[in-house]
Design a protein that fits this description.
This protein has 491 residues and is mainly alpha-helical. The chain contains 27 helices and two strands. Strands 1-2 form a two-stranded antiparallel sheet. A hairpin with a 5-residue loop joins strand 1 and strand 2.
Length: 491
């Protein structure tokens, strides 16, 4: 049904809907006018009794109406209902100017258009009051300030900024050429952190074949990549890299290193046996062979000795119980163990010290020191003496040692050897002054007296006479020497 022109005009003039205009009704001025009209329309409904202004009104949130918290929450709630997000004023939170006692606003004053002083003030005027400061909303930072992240830096500039500790994005470097330029510039900068960061990016974005090919010609980058993979324990990729480089010995050593993570000794022994076929260097191959042989022997000795100790029939295990297992112990520790518990066993047995020495090519000096320490610990002095006894082709015996007798005396003294044992080896020290010093330290009086006698030093012998016990055999021996007319003293 068509309406006449007069009806249309009457409709627009009488309807509660307004015609479309190009005016921006969302601006601050329009909202203030509407707020003022709303206030004026309900002003008559609010009592103008001044006593009501002293009553503190509280909102549903529990905050006093008109307080800062209430104003902010009400403003935020009204903004959420708007079609678009307006910029609401940031209210000054200075406690001195916004305390309740100094505030110029209350619920009644907002609706009545009065201040607490009683003077009439409209709602529009109240918003323009100097006591309330309106601030522009905080906007996002200009895009220019984010240029560190989004600008089109060259590979060289990017590396330079990484050296300065600035955050940059490497994702924009997509071509292989740009990525290699990044790597080359980082190597030229001699900065390990930057090199590692670039390598991590290349590792993630390049295929293994391309990455391995490119780092092979860049030894500095290659070393950093190997170190990074080692520290991050990326064994799989590290093995692939070493194989691609043809470094078979490094691959073998890396695989051999996995034995450290095997706890069960039998499984570790089997793993070491499988490593014997890996392409080690001659020196490393000998080491791996000895490791396997030693662990295999330790397993046998440990099994046998554990049963003997539990059986309670072997005297040495009863007098000196084992403090720890022999498994996974070093070679010298194993030799000491065998010298301690299996010293007299024939050479054909696995636990024989002589068999251990022969199998692992232990030097004479190392075997001597280890056996001496083990037998001295047991106070087996005849075995200690037998270690030094040497017989020549004429059948004569003499004491011989692959290490200095001063070191022998120290070992015996640490194992609480008696004076009678110590003096036999102190007397074998060649240097006279050192021999006297050791003899005085260990109270081997006969050695001191005989040495001064041989030196024909009457004064030193007289001085030493005052150090021995009065009336002792040592004092009588010194007196006999001093009264002996056949000795031609130097002084």
């Amino acid at each position: 049904m068509m309406k006449s022109k007069a009806d249309e005009e009457d409709y627009w003039n009488s309807s509660k809907f307004k015609a479309f205009t190009f005016d921006d009704e969302d601006d601050e001025f329009s909202r203030l006018k509407e707020s003022k009209r709303a206030v004026n329309s309900i002003r008559s409904l609010v009592e103008e009794d001044d006593d009501d202004e002293e009553v503190e009104k509280v909102s549903w949130s529990g905050e006093p109406v008109g307080s800062i918290c209430w104003s902010v929450s009400e403003t935020a709630a009204s903004n959420q209902r708007a079609d678009r997000e307006p910029a609401f004023p940031k209210i000054n939170t200075d406690t001195a100017g916004l305390s309740k006692s100094h505030s110029g606003y209350s619920l009644s004053s907002l609706f009545k258009g009065k201040t607490k002083g009683g003077n009439f003030q409209s709602f529009t005027d109240s918003l323009s009051d100097s006591s309330v400061r309106l601030y522009a909303p905080e906007l996002r930072k200009p895009k220019a300030e984010y240029k560190d992240y989004v600008s089109d830096w060259s590979p060289e500039e990017t590396v330079h900024r990484m050296q300065q500790g600035k955050v940059v994005s490497l994702e924009k470097f997509r071509s292989l050429q740009d990525k290699l330029l990044l790597l080359d510039f980082s190597v030229s900068a001699h900065d390990g952190n930057v090199i590692t960061a670039v390598l991590i990016y290349l590792k993630r974005t390049l295929s293994k074949e391309v990455l391995f090919r490119e780092v092979e010609s860049r030894q500095t980058a290659l070393r950093h990549l190997i170190q990074y993979l080692t520290e991050t324990r990326d064994q799989r990729l590290l093995l692939e890299l070493l194989r691609a480089l043809g470094r078979t010995e490094d691959v073998a050593l890396l695989q051999y290193k996995e034995h450290l993570s095997i706890a069960d000794e039998n499984k570790k022994r089997d793993f070491l046996k499988s490593c014997l076929s890996l392409p080690f260097s001659p020196e490393d191959s000998t080491h791996v062979q000895d490791h396997y042989t030693l662990l295999e022997r330790q397993v046998i000795i440990e099994t046998t000795d554990r049963l003997a100790e539990r059986g309670g029939k072997v005297e040495i295990f009863q007098k000196f119980p084992r403090r720890a297992s022999i498994l996974n112990m070093p070679l010298i520790t194993t030799l000491y163990y065998c010298c301690f518990y299996h010293y007299t066993e024939p050479e054909g047995t696995f636990s024989s010290p002589l068999n251990v020495r022969q199998t692992f090519k232990i030097s004479e000096k190392q075997f001597f020191v280890t056996a001496l320490a083990a037998r001295a610990k047991l106070k087996a002095w005849p075995d200690v003496d037998a270690l030094f006894t040497s017989r020549n082709w004429l059948g004569f015996t003499r004491k011989k040692s692959p290490l200095g007798f001063q070191r022998v005396v120290d070992i015996l003294q640490k194992n609480s050897a008696p004076t009678q044992v110590l003096q036999d080896y102190v007397a074998l020290v060649d240097d006279a002054e050192l021999r006297i010093s050791l003899a005085q330290k260990h109270k081997c009086h006969d050695i001191v007296i005989n040495t001064y006698r041989d030196l024909k030093d009457r004064q030193q012998l007289l001085a030493y006479r005052g150090k021995v016990t009065r009336g002792s055999g040592e004092e009588r021996k010194i007196d006999e020497l001093l009264n002996n007319p056949q000795i031609r003293w130097k002084n």
